[in-house]
Amino acid sequence: MFVLQLVGYHDSGKTTLAEYLVRELQKRGFVVGYVKHDPKGKGVTDKEGSDTARVKPFTLKTALVSPDTFTLWYKRGLSLKEALKFFEDCDAVIVEGFKEEKGYPKVVVGDLPADEAILRVKSRRDYPKVLEFLLSSLEGGTRY
Amino acid sequence: MFVLQLVGYHDSGKTTLAEYLVRELQKRGFVVGYVKHDPKGKGVTDKEGSDTARVKPFTLKTALVSPDTFTLWYKRGLSLKEALKFFEDCDAVIVEGFKEEKGYPKVVVGDLPADEAILRVKSRRDYPKVLEFLLSSLEGGTRY
């Protein structure tokens, strides 16, 4: 599993880059994961009044088993490392956010100051070089 | 991990029983899980246009890491057995649906014919006996 983090200010275009990378990797046959940090808890991942929404308040874990998708809600604030344990069957995981996290290569989108970044993306013209880095890391067998 | 299945026709009250059981178990300090079968894929577990909804089509797994909840979408049609692997840290798991599944005790809600059922629930007055069965199974150490 190769991990690449995309960091940057709010609305800097991290998700658009993530979409591009994940799509390009999938096209090439890689099994891909995506982890998004939602530090303010704004994400809405269940429908109000659904069966799972009714029962979930009393569980540690709740799952919905649909024909093509398994959805799991785990009532814990996980670290990135803990979250990545669920992705061990992926070739590459694109992580959006978690800019304070150490240990994984980081691409900076926009103007965020970041000394550690391996690449900085200013516009869509920079996307292919990020993909190239990812592909060469995957070929090189770098793993986390 | 003790597993109890609730089976019955659509709208027979399975979720209301699940809610009761999970709440009562949680009150008593048990760590509880809930698995709901969604055989027709009607469940909505992401918000249209969200970042995860945009990237998810190209991934095997996508996660949203919020302060108190970790949500995972896994693009596979899992069996109940595969789904339950995610619940190994729970004391008890209430499973709603999967009536064809073999191997776990089943409570029938309403009129569904089911020879295998250990209990049948016709109204709310029957709820405490289901809870009692669960508590004695948990005390007895029955595990799956």
The strand line-up of the biggest sheet of chain A is 2-5-1-6-7
Mean pLDDT over the residues of chain A: 95
**Secondary structure: number of strands of chain A:** 7
What series of H and E elements makes up the topology of chain A?
A: EHEHEEHEEEH
The Rg value of chain A, from CA coordinates, equals 17 Å
Oligomer: homodimer
- Helix percentage of chain A: 25-40%
Short description:
2 copies of one chain form a homodimer. The first copy, chain A, is α/β, with parallel strands linked by helices and 144 residues long.
Task: Summarize the structure in words.
- The structure is a homodimer of 144-residue chains.
- In chain A, the strands form 2 sheets. Chain A has a 5-stranded parallel β-sheet with strand order 2-5-1-6-7.
- Chain A contains 4 helices and 7 strands.
- By secondary structure, chain A is α/β, with parallel strands linked by helices.
- In chain A, strand 3 and strand 4 (70-74) form a beta hairpin.
- Chain A is globular, with a radius of gyration of 17 Å.
- Chain A has helices at residues 14-27, 51-55, 80-84, 127-140; strands at 2-8, 32-37, 61-65, 70-74, 92-96, 106-109, 119-121.
- At the A-B interface, helix 1, strand 2, helix 2, strand 3 and strand 4 of A face helix 1, strand 2, helix 2, strand 3 and strand 4 of B.
